[in-house]
Write a structure and sequence with these properties.
The chain is mostly helical. 62% of the residues lie in helices and 0% in strands. It has 10 helices and no strands. α1 crosses α6. The two termini are 30 Å apart.
Length: 208
């Protein structure tokens, strides 16, 4: 994945379309909740901890939406996942949170105005969103279970990369995605299906 961080009109359009997807799906339970605070008050550098403690700390940071700590641990979790592929799912969830997608979902599911949602969508970290797709790809290759919401974020990242490559702001009808010569469209189809969604029906339901 190599999505430019520069926001263009086509990317903005894709982000708003993605917001509609998230709103329509009304996703819930995308993260396992950890109620403990195992490392509360800890002063050590997280990178110096053994892998099992980094994993526990990362899960705790994810549950508590501690973005600073997630940023400190993201690279460590990706490195751990190279030997322990189960952690690719955790890395994908952290990347999803750091990208800002989780904030967009929450805003879309509350009383936020369309302008609020649009502002959040425009502020997404597209580089980190691309990391969602990369980690999902690695997780799938290893046979690791991925949360539906993370699959959808990965699908959005694939579509963003497709749009940035073709220089257009129009998403083709999903009936053309499956088996498409474009790896991004093919992946987007697979990820949405893996999330339990029918991409074609979903696309049609979101048309004006």
């Amino acid at each position: 994945m190599n999505i430019p961080t520069h926001q263009t009109t086509r990317v903005k359009g894709m982000l708003l379309w993605g917001t509609l997807i998230f709103t329509a799906l009304l996703l819930s339970g995308c993260q396992e909740v950890f109620t403990y605070s195992l490392f509360e008050g800890m002063q050590r550098d997280p990178s110096s901890l053994p892998p099992e403690q980094q994993i526990s700390l990362a899960k705790n940071a994810l549950a508590n939406n501690d973005k600073d700590l997630m940023e400190d641990l993201y690279d460590e979790i990706v490195a751990i996942a190279a030997d322990d592929p189960e952690q690719y799912a955790l890395a994908a969830q952290i990347a999803m949170s750091l990208s800002g997608v989780t904030d967009v979902i929450e805003e879309a599911g509350t009383s936020g105005t369309s302008s609020d949602i649009e502002a959040l969508a425009e502020s997404l970290d597209t580089a980190m969103l691309a990391n969602v797709a990369t980690n999902v790809e690695n997780a799938v290759a290893a046979g690791v279970t991925v949360e539906p919401s993370v699959y959808i974020a990965a699908a959005g990242a694939e579509l963003l990369e497709y749009l940035s490559g073709v220089g257009d702001d129009t998403i083709p009808d999903p009936s053309t995605w499956d088996g498409n010569a474009s790896a991004e469209l093919d992946n987007a189809w697979d990820y949405l299906v893996a999330a339990g969604e029918d991409p074609t029906s979903l696309y049609e339901s979101l048309q004006p």
